[in-house]
Amino acid sequence: MLKTNILLTLRNFHSQHVFEKSFNATFVALIPKKVGAIELRDFRPISLVTGMYKIIAKVLVERIKAFTGTTNEPGIIKWRHNTDGTESTKGAL
Description:
Layout: H1 2-16, E1 26-32, E2 43-49, H2 51-68, H3 84-92
Antiparallel strand pairs: 1-2
């Protein structure tokens, strides 16, 4: 049942280019760094995105990989951050 719903959602996204706003909903949770945390600096924020957002993002990344022609794309390589490309460009200037 879940697989069917996911496939239908992906087909809808692909054919109609519709991205439900609820897929992009992000929740921020504060995790205490220490027992008895009171101040904001005593907490670590984590971002929780919806599962459907992650699935669509992974599908798009896999499709983009086919068109890049290189494995040096900063946002695609797992151990790189998408800001690495801009940082290296700034360094070259």
